[in-house]
Amino acid sequence: MADTLKEILLDSSRRPSVVTDLEGLVDAEVSDKGGVSGAVVKTGFAAVKKIKPGIIPSAVDTLLDDFAVALEPFYGDYRAQGGNDFGAYLTSRSDAAADALLSVTDSRAERSSRDSIKKVYSKLRPNGKKNVEEALPRLGQLIDKHAATV
To answer: What is the DSSP string of 31-94?
Structure first.
């Protein structure tokens, strides 16, 4: 098993597979959303993908390095504890893990020169933490999967 997320997620030979799997994670998380807010998320997600095909893998690839850095302290602690389920580990620290991941997208949105991006992000951000927390088990499992291949 690799010692760092950089070794697991960012290695050039594995990165395309990681991006593909993360795109699948995003698709699955959106698909699982229910209720009125879920319908809004699904409709918006479908529209974005139709208007700009390839935007999800491109965004994942762009953010991946920063996400790896944000999660590295969690992964280091998990490894030091001899953990065997990173998804469960992240879930047990969902508040801090979600904040770490959202700090990446918050920073990216803040630095954007496009007002439209800032406006859309500010509308989505209030539910962002809940959505990220719900995705942590799958994210941890995905990282475990890739760690096992290193």
So the answer is: HH--HHHHHHHHHHHHHHHHHSTTHHHHHHHHHHHHHHHHHHHHHHHHHHTT-S-HHHHHHHTH
Q: 45 is written with which tokens?
A: 């997600």
* pLDDT value for 97: 98
Give residue-wise pLDDT tens across range 82-105.
989 999 999 999 999 999 999 999
What tokens appear for 20 in the block?
């593909």
* C-alpha span between 66 and 64 (Å, rounded): 6
3-state secondary structure of 118: helix
Residue 73's contacts (CB-CB under 8 Å, 6 or more residues apart) are 100
Is the confidence at residue 1, as pLDDT, over 70? no
